[in-house]
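2024-03-11 09:14:02 INFO receiving multi-entity request
2024-03-11 09:14:02 INFO entity count = two
2024-03-11 09:14:03 INFO echoing inputs for audit
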Amino acid sequence: MLFTERHSRPAIRFILIQNRAGKTRLAKWYMQFDDDEKQKLIEEVHAVVTVRDAKHTNFVEFRNFKIIYRRYAGLYFCICVDVTDNNLAYLEGIHNFVEVLNEYFHNVCELDLVFNFYKVYTVVDEMFLAGEIRETSQTKVLKQLLMLQSLE
Amino acid sequence: MSPSVPLQEMIRAIRSARTQCEERGVIQRECAAIRAQFRQADNGGRSHNLAKLLYVHMLGYPAHFGQMECVRMIASPRYSEKRVGYLGAMMLLDEKQDASLLITNSIKNDLSNSNQYIQSLALCTLACMGSAEMCRDLAPEIDRLLRASNSYIKKKAALCAVHIVRKVHDLGELFTKAARSLLTEKNHGVVHGAVVLITELCERNSETLERFRKTVPDLVQIMKGLVISGYSPDHDVAGISDPFLQVRILRLLRILGRNNEGASDAMNDLLAQVATNTDSTKTVGNAVLYETVLTVLDIKSESGLRVLAVNILGRFLLNNDRNIRYIAMTSLQKIVGTDHNAVQRHRGTIVDCLKDQDASVKRRALDLSLALVSASNIRSMMKELLSFLSSCPPELRSQTASGIFNAAERYAPSQRWHIDTILHVLTTAGGDVRDETVPNLIQLITNTSELHCYTVHKLYRALLSDISQQPLVQVACWCIGEYGDLLLRGECQETEPVQVTEDDVLDVLETVLQSHMSFPSTRGFALTATMKLSTRITENVDRIRSIVSIYGSCIDVELQQRAVEYNALFKKYDHMRAAVLERMPVIEKNSQGHINGETIKESQTVKVKPGEPQQPANQVCDLLDLLGGSEQPLQPSPALGSTAPPMPVSTANTVGGDLLDLLGGLEPTPITPVATVTVYEKDGVTVTLSCEKQSDSGLTVTLTASNSTESDIRGFTLQAAVPKSVQLHMKAPSGDSLPARGAAKVTQMVVLNNPNKVNLKMRLRISYTSQGSAVQDTVQIDSFPGLGQ
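2024-03-11 09:21:47 INFO inference complete, emitting structure
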């Protein structure tokens, strides 16, 4: 396996938050895609993820990479990673992220994510960067977010 | 803090639209308003407008007219405007847009800003959408930030450096030293960033990898600190201290330890410690354990550690959580080749996973099960696999079927078991098997002569119940045709015999012939089988005659041709019918190379007919093989002509014979050879060779054969093969019988053309029948007399 081939791409290709109807609540792309490619990916991920239920695993093989997803109430949090990555670690990463959102928005619900969409992007950028997990300490992230908030 | 009022209002307006059309109308109005606002001079509400535009973009509507606004906002001194501007840049601008270059300067300035949050915005944007040129411009800045700033910035700078290295590979050199020193920091986030950066650098460049091997002790130290240390509130997740960092370090250790003894030794203890101490009741712990297992299996670890790793995977297999079972099987698949015994211990659990409800888990379990089949467990495994076949999802069927066939072929405990298994597969999943199954099965059946009776009874019963599975029907028809007499005899040792009359058998075959479910090839099988029965049954030959003549006007050309020929066999050549339709000899399975395989299969499926062509076909193939499967078109002596027309060979022989007789008077007189060499002499049969150069590259070779034994030799044939670039053309021999005591000779001329002037060699195969037994021999001719070689 040639090193360079594998790693010219980031570990995380994109992060998506979608609701059951297919509306995107957050789309963060760490790789170069055209607009129509992005739209197609969003639709495909939605199709693949919404047909699965509790008796399926949380990992789906998708094109030539895989999607780690988890459903919280009506929202699907999906992270698209390379096939060789550690599934369980990213599953924990999703959960970490959701817990931070929960803390920040005080019992977050979908509407919070809709009306405060740019804040959600801030949270994502605090925890993930350049396609990798960046900050994992919830307390630290929350502290930073409050600081940023005060600047606005 | 709630979002700005205008933004809120717009969101509410969009959400209250009841149809797609209404929504589009609202959005168009809003966009027009935003565009107007952009054109105006600086006003307080700029950030709100851009935010509105970004929301619209998230819903999927085009928003590129906001790009220049983003650029302007980034340059603004106010934080709130910068913030929205950068967010807009990340969402709307990408490498392909020209506007992205315009923000390079702003980013550069912001990277040196005194406010760390503005620095972080710039870093974030660069890491997200920085193009190669931007990266090259700003790389020195990032390096500076990696060394001298606070930890908040260092974290982000490290990952930004990762992005830069991905975009511009050469800049990796720039960051190596800084990355090394970052490892010593206390801040987890910084260490995490450093580890990611080092991983990226090592994966790109093997020299850097060598250099970073020295950091293994440091990494081990950090890991130890994480594993042993007490509760650390900041980074604790369900009792494990910063699992994400642990996972990343383990991964880096894997890369550093791969193929390197020294590094692997250094991390042995640590890995053992992590594997045993990590709490595996929650997913987090399992994530760390899984990464540890992957590392252990990839580096040069000692065997005790490997066993430990495989045991952990085994424990995963028993876990209730389906996710964990799935990843355990994925890893086991990778090591089943090398640590086969260790994986065998968990066979029971793996086989249970075949019944899981998730299709991807089933697929993994299937792959693993097939890899674990061995001679000792074949019977029990096959039971499981067969029951899986009947209930598995359709996309896995053909894979399962071929896996079962392979396993059966390698480890079948008895012939009867083998045949039973294949029949079982054909009845359950007949539509999904590969095409070569039918000839393979036929060949297997002919090889087990003691089971012919059993097989034909079983197949007959299967045919009675269901004629839709084509491979099964084809095999059944063939068997009934061949062994119909055994069926009619009504006695069988292995299974309870069925009492069939000749009419029943013919009924079944006719049903197959007439059914709309039968493929044309299947009907071909059935017609031939019907014909073969004419010699094996006694009373209903007329019925067969009428069936055959009906199909003489069938629309399907193949069937029509067959029927017409069989008709001819009834009428004109009735005396030959018995010989033509007698029992076939055992078909040899030629397993060397595809060319041979293809030819044999062709001659079996297409020529399910008079047994004689089988021998010559074999000979042709074997000769091909002798020359290393060279594609040199071989000219078998014309008297054989086996692969060409489907005419019964005896007829061809007669016809050919007639022709030869016609030409009898014109028999070419053997050319007085310039020099003669005896190339073969055995059992009284002598073959001599002489050659004459016709042109620069052409050569005529004459082969003469004689027989000095006391008995006549019949069916004497010669076949020749030459190297690839040489062209060969064999003329008709003068005859095919050698009377005793050298009373007459047989000569055959071979014309060779050697344009490339290669070293001329010829391999000759001699076959004949003497005193009732067939003899075959091969001889290689390396030098030709008179050629001056």
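2024-03-11 09:21:48 INFO post-check: The two ends of chain A are 48 Å apart (CA to CA).
2024-03-11 09:21:48 INFO post-check: Residues 12-150 of chain A form a domain with the Beta-Lactamase fold (CATH 3.30.450.60).
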